[in-house]
Amino acid sequence: MSxxxxxxxxxxxxALAQKLAQRRRVREIRLIDxxxxxxxxxxxxxxxxxxxxxxxxxxxxxxxxxxxxxxxAIAIADSVSGVEHAGxxxxxxxxxxxxxxxxxxxxxxxxxxxxxxxxxxxxxxLPSERLVGSAPAALAxxxxxxxxxxxxxxxxxxxxxxxxxxxxxxVVAWEEAAAAGExxxxxxxxxxxxxxxxxxxxxxxxxxxxxxxxxxxxxxxxCFSSRRRYxxxxxxxxxxxxxxxxxxxxxxxxxxxxxxxxxxxxTALENAIEAG
Length: 276
Hints:
Elements: E1 2-7, H1 11-23, E2 26-32, H2 36-48, H3 50-53, E3 58-62, E4 73-76, H4 87-99, E5 106-108, H5 114-122, E6 131-133, H6 135-151, E7 158-159, E8 162-165, E9 169-172, E10 178-179, E11 182-183, H7 184-187, H8 190-199, H9 208-224, E12 226-235, E13 241-249, E14 252-256, H10 263-275
Parallel strand pairs: 1-2, 1-4, 2-3, 4-5, 5-6
Antiparallel strand pairs: 7-10, 8-9, 10-11, 12-13, 13-14
Helix pairs in contact: 1-2, 1-9, 4-5, 6-8, 6-9
């Protein structure tokens, strides 16, 4: 059982803490925010839902960034105002985490934190294998839901990856997408695939609950290891951050996979990475 620290007690941070508690895999969840009374209130509210949802994780709240030290994974979320940690303030926050001595993998759970990841690599020179953005996994989930409606099945049966740089540079890896083991391209017409692809930019950024669900699974994969592949923002070289399928473990990114793409999809991905 592991410890996950969440920096930011806003809508995303609170949803992430609740999702982790409900999944019952993490021993302790630390909710950290300068507005400590708000963080304590959210932690208490989630704890009081434990008997209903049948979980017993320990939720603690802190006002100091130093509480992140010693956690197995650290998630960067949002302030109590609901604004995701990004920009200069977000960079200063990550710098503080690093200066405090935290060396755990960092999950950037927000949908607007890709540029923050770029700056963490280029300006703070943090090890890129410890930096993961989970928002693309939430986008992939939304695309799966759309496909499920088209072919009239459960989205749980669908597997696909979204790569590139959302919103306009997001590329769905249709060549390797499947539903219950059958190629999705055999179940959906070309016009249906085109229609779903056209809707992808409008799905970005995902909402706090989708982001929290994706962030929880990515954080758990960092703590416990997982052979499942997640679409995540990662450094693909030269400090360029793009979504790619990854395998995660306690040290961070274990492996970045090259998705199976059509020539058109490959070109779109390369253009998105260069432009990003």
